[in-house]
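Team,

Forwarding the record for the chain on the shared tracking sheet. I've put the sequence and predicted structure together so nobody has to dig through attachments.
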Amino acid sequence: MNLEITLAQSVAEAIKQLYGAEVSTEKIQLQKTRKEFEGDFTLVVFPFLALSKKRPEETAQEIGEQLKNSLPIISSFNVVKGFLNLAIAPSYWVELLKHIDSTEKWGTIPVTEASPLVMVEYSSPNTNKPLHLGHIRNNLLGYALSNIIAANGNKVVKTNIVNDRGIHICKSMLAWQKWGNGETPASSGKKGDHLIGDYYVAFDKHYKAELSELMEKGLSKEEAEAASPLMAEAREMLVKWEAGDKEVRALWEQMNGWVYEGFDETYKRLGVDFDKIYYESDTYLVGKETVLGGLEKGIFYRREDESVWADLTGDGLDEKLLLRSDGTSVYMTQDIGTAQLRFRDYPIDKMVYVVGNEQNYHFQVLSLLLDKLGFSWGKGLVHFSYGMVELPEGKMKSREGTVVDADDLMDEMINTARETSEELGGKLSDLSAEEKAEINRIIGLGALKYFMLKVDARRNMLFNPKESIDFNGNTGPFIQYTYARTRSIGRKAAEAGAKTAFTAPESISEKECNIIRMLNEFPAVVRQAGTDYSPSGIANYAYELAREYNQFYHDYSILREENEETKAFRLLLTDNVGKVIKTAMNLLGIEVPERM
């Protein structure tokens, strides 16, 4: 039951009847009628003037009369210059509501065996620090994007690449070796990722002190960095790791194990998951072998210091380091290897990387390198580039310990939800402490997720916890409250034994028609969000629907409506508003409580 397709086909038939010409439905421009005009859909008639050989107003009038006579769902029409505004009969909207109600997963396309396979990479943490605010935006965008792609009829594999090796990991390991005194998560009472993050900060603190001492002796900053014994030890540890040194590898496995336990706890709490996790320690050698193979084929070249480079100047870029002079790998080498392993493991039709916009150049280079290496999927990679999250205090720096920790932020959001609920007058007073805690968790995390996702992902954003949890305006709690309201109305109607089946009421209001129009738009919103890779499109649709329903709720009676047919209709409308809000929010990875 696609109204736009029905209208387009009817317009094509009307033109054939009036002017004896065949017109493709693709050339028929139908738009939502602007609010200042009466109607539901507007037809642009200018493309048909060559067929009618008449003025725009006369052409629109003729087409309007033909449509009204041939299509019962059109109740009236009006002409504004070269635009034909068509009003749809209320009875059609009622039937459409019944159709939406009978479609269990309204708005989504089912996955079949023939569906394309899309892999989405997100999170990509380093094992030298806990997840922070920037990771939260990445994880939420990646998870929501995966859901939206799946809702558009694709098979989806959610994947993560863990950066578990490299100089930054060795810094934490070396710091723990030097100053840890055998400390463990169990002995310290800290999550493993937090514990290791503390040692990453400790390394930076000692490194800076060492640089200061060297610079006081007359060395420049660059000379001090080159002469730093601490950094030399970290580099030596990396070389030993790559050589398979047993002692270094054992320490690495122990410390990474602590971190993974911490990550898993954070992911579970944030409500994101993965189908497959790759580790840089497994993929970098594949990339290294591929780069060396490319060197033999003349795709890359070796410099005098034994480092390996790609010359991309002919592609309008610069030269890119692929292997250092000591033979160790860089991120690009790892990404080449990871891409190969993924396409070896899965019959991927499309690969989407969810990575911040500071890596735009990196993925431009990766796509080129994979293409040069002969991998057909190289040019088809999608970099879902998003902006950074900033705070009122400014940017975050992991090595200085000034990040906003993901776990701490989630605690803060849940506490803020609890405080806000209490300030609003104890609507949850009859619930147990456990039930209250669960609802506050849903509200707090919903506020966080929605605030992150409602903004165009390409933009940098300023995160404001207090603003995000407001129960009014374009926020997660406002939408969650609207859903809870629809559920409350449904429960009260069931308790009162209200009639649910109905025949179409004699008339329905413009506000009710508009809500059904919005419900009807949901599939198109999901399609567009999938095409544009835009979770914000879903988020802002959910807000507009919630706002429209709340205006209706305040203007019209539902449970107190005396006409039983009208009451049954409004209950069905309410139930389906709740159904679509829940679907939309779930696509974003946001839970909705049954009561608030």
